[in-house]
Structures are given as structure tokens and as C-alpha cells.
Write a structure and sequence with these properties.
11% strand; 3 domains; four-stranded antiparallel β-sheet; 398 residues; elongated; single chain; alpha+beta; hpI Integrase, Chain A
């Protein structure tokens, strides 16, 4: 009795094109199909769903076709055929079913397909919701860690927990300049990536079943963001005395206001009001108006003198400041002043906040002045309030 042949086996001899549904299911059958633009369609995979094989001169591609409830034909490229994979056709069917599932769920897979696409979409979203400063901060972070990294090319539907964990761990390795990200910075970058991916889910660019892949990636332990390096008044004056060129004004502004370096570098002359002695900083938490000390007012008046309202308040010889440029110049000034390693613009912000809290300002006041949350100030500086109270208890006031 003759054995029954599997439908995935190619028929012997020359292919009968009227029966090509069988032929696309095996490597030998696909090899005998003449190249043509129109795909060879297989049997139905699901209701209205078909997998096709587009035969090329060398190899071929899988393609899916589905007729929706409105009678419209929808097509989706499934990728190159891997003839070394004995389950190539079965895997193409599986991919087609996954695509159909996304289509029925309203997933707009063609608009935002990769991790980089999701990050760019997120930047556009927060630019509308929170303004340019917040969007620029996110965009610069993605520029450094996603857009030029392999993870940026990964399809959202193929992103895995293991791949994200590997990317997170790679962030701690030295870059081309020998710089490394601290654990707290890595965690902030991971949070930024998750925010972009969550928006992609919300906007139906990827189904909710993929969300578990990044939800499973946890922040690094022992990543306390408290900055231990503090510059006292003598050290801060030594740093300013060692500064060369326009970077001195940048550093002095950080010392006098506690503003983030990016907020200072992006400030326009129109944000400073010399009549009221106020400055409107625009940072990642939005815009805030702060009252300046007499020393800061004098510095800002000098910086804004003879400049157009739209001009940079603080520039680098007529050009906008770049993070890498000011970092290098601050580091060189710190070396000339024989200060401890690790001095940067954020150390000056930290020193301002420390002095303000130790000087008696409430944590809520300091949070408003520096554009951060009260929770952050309490988490990293509340111990200074207790220390001030203990010192006060040792002083004979009456």
C-alpha cells in the first residue's frame, strides 16, 4: 500500500503552477517556482489570511495577505525566506497570525516599527505636552543611547527582556571618549526607554502582550543618586579663578541659581527681566520664574548687554554651548584649581542646593527654585535639615 505523501513535500517533476499552494511549503518546491512579481499564495492560514511566497532570482520573500471586514486587502512583508530553516513555512504562518492579531487589535505597525521609531514618537509627544526643554533632554539621551545603538534597529515586536538587559548593561561600559554612565544615569535612561515603549503600546503601535518584555527589566541596585562631592565657598572661588573664557559665566550662574546646566545653556536674553530681577528658566519640569540675588542680577545684566532678546544669554564665543564642551572646560578648570576629581556643572547645582538647605531655606522653597520635586529634595537633602537642627541645638542662643 502506497504511503500518503505530506502536503509539505514538493511534487516530483516539473511544478504544476495551478497547484503551487503545496510548492511554497517546502524548500525543494520553492526552488522550482519561476521568479515573478506576484506572490505564489498558499492555502488559507486563518479566515481571510494567506501566506505568499514571492520568488526572486536568488531566494525569495514571505508576504501575508488579509481581507478585513470592509473587504479591503491588506498586505504585510514577513521578511526573507530562510531556506536553512526546515520550519520556514510554519514560522511564516506564525508571523502572519501575529500580524493579523495586531491588525485586529488596531495596531499601527507600519508607522512606528522599531525602538528608535518609538523614541522619536515619544520626543514629539512630550514636545507637545511638556515643551521644548523636556523634549530636547529626552532627544539628547536617545541620541547617546538608542539611535546609534543596535537596539534602535530592533523591531518592537521582536524586543525581548534579554535584549534590553544587555543594552542596559552596555551603558555602563566606557564610550569612545572613555566616559561611563553612573548607575543612577543608567536607571534614568532605562526609565526614558520604558516611557517611549509604553507610549507605543498606548498608541497601538505594538500590542500589550509585548509590554512584559520591558516591564521585567529592573533598575540597577545601589544607584543612589545622592551627590557626595560638595564644593565649599573657598573651592568654588578657586574654580572660578581657574576658569578661562565664557565658561566662567556658565559656572557662576550654576553657583548663584542652582539651575541645571542645560537650562542655563539654552537660556535666551528675553527670559531675564532686569526690572524685576527675575529669570524664567525652562527645564525638563517646565518653566519656572525665580528671583535672583543681586550678584546674579549683575551677572545677567552684563551677559545680556547689547544682545537681541532672542540671543543666547550665555554663549561660547557666539555659538550655543554644547554639553561636551562645557564638561571638558569645567574639568580643566577643576584640575588647575587642584580640586577633587569629578567636578562638573551638576556638582555646582548640588553645592547650591546644599548651601540653601543648610542656610535655612525650606525644602519646598529649594525645590521650587531649582525646578525639581519636593520628593527628590527630601530624599537626597533632608539629612542636611536634621544636621542643621543638631548644630543649632549646640549653639547658645540666649
Amino acid at each position: 500500500m502506497a504511503s500518503k505523501r505530506s502536503t509539505t513535500d514538493a511534487p516530483a517533476g516539473k511544478p504544476d503552477l495551478a497547484d503551487y499552494r503545496q510548492w511554497i511549503q517546502s524548500k525543494t518546491g520553492r526552488a522550482k517556482l519561476p521568479p515573478r512579481n506576484n506572490p505564489y499564495w498558499g492555502p488559507p492560514v486563518d479566515r481571510g489570511l494567506f501566506v505568499g511566497y514571492r520568488s526572486l532570482t536568488h531566494g525569495g520573500n514571505w508576504i501575508a495577505r488579509w481581507r478585513n471586514d470592509q473587504g479591503e486587502q491588506c498586505f504585510h512583508a514577513l521578511g526573507r525566506v530562510d531556506d536553512d530553516d526546515k520550519d520556514a513555512y510554519a514560522n511564516a504562518q506564525k508571523a502572519a497570525r501575529e500580524w493579523l492579531k495586531r491588525m485586529r487589535a488596531g495596531i499601527k505597525s507600519s508607522e512606528v516599527a522599531t525602538v528608535a521609531d518609538a523614541c522619536r514618537e515619544y520626543v514629539s509627544h512630550i514636545r507637545k505636552e511638556k515643551g521644548d526643554a523636556t523634549a530636547t533632554d529626552a532627544e539628547q539621551r536617545y541620541n547617546r543611547t538608542v539611535y546609534e545603538h543596535e537596539i534602535g534597529k530592533v523591531a518592537l515586536t521582536k524586543l525581548t527582556t534579554k535584549r534590553i538587559q544587555a543594552w542596559r548593561d552596555e551603558l555602563g561600559e566606557p564610550n569612545e571618549r572613555g566616559k561611563t554612565l553612573g548607575r543612577a544615569s543608567i536607571n534614568r535612561t532605562l526609565t526614558a526607554l520604558k516611557a517611549a515603549l509604553n507610549l507605543a503600546v498606548r498608541d497601538r503601535h505594538v500590542s500589550t502582550e509585548h509590554e512584559i518584555e520591558w516591564r521585567n527589566v529592573k533598575p540597577l541596585d545601589k544607584a543612589d543618586n545622592r551627590r557626595e562631592l560638595f564644593l565649599d565657598l573657598t573651592q568654588r572661588r578657586a574654580l572660578l579663578a581657574s576658569a578661562e573664557g565664557p565658561v566662567r559665566a556658565l559656572m557662576e550662574t550654576a553657583m548663584l541659581t542652582g539651575a541645571r546646566p542645560g537650562e542655563i545653556a539654552r537660556a535666551r536674553c528675553k527670559q531675564f527681566d532686569p526690572r524685576t530681577g527675575t529669570m524664567e528658566f525652562d527645564g525638563k519640569t517646565g518653566k519656572r520664574k525665580v528671583f535672583l540675588t543681586p550678584a546674579a542680577v549683575a551677572l545677567f545684566k552684563s551677559a545680556a548687554k547689547h544682545k537681541h532678546p532672542e540671543a543666547w544669554l550665555f554663549d561660547n564665543y557666539g555659538t550655543a554651548w554644547n554639553k561636551h564642551v562645557w564638561n571638558e572646560q569645567v574639568q580643566k578648570a577643576a584640575e588647575r584649581a587642584a580640586l577633587p576629581p569629578g567636578v562638573c556643572m551638576y556638582v555646582l547645582r548640588h553645592s547650591f542646593i546644599t548651601e540653601a538647605v543648610m542656610g535655612g531655606l525650606s525644602t519646598s522653597e529649594v525645590a521650587k527654585m531649582t525646578g525639581t520635586s519636593l520628593a527628590m529634595i527630601d530624599a537626597h537633602y533632608a539629612h542636611l535639615v536634621q544636621a542643621s537642627a543638631e548644630r543649632l541645638a549646640r549653639i547658645a542662643l540666649i
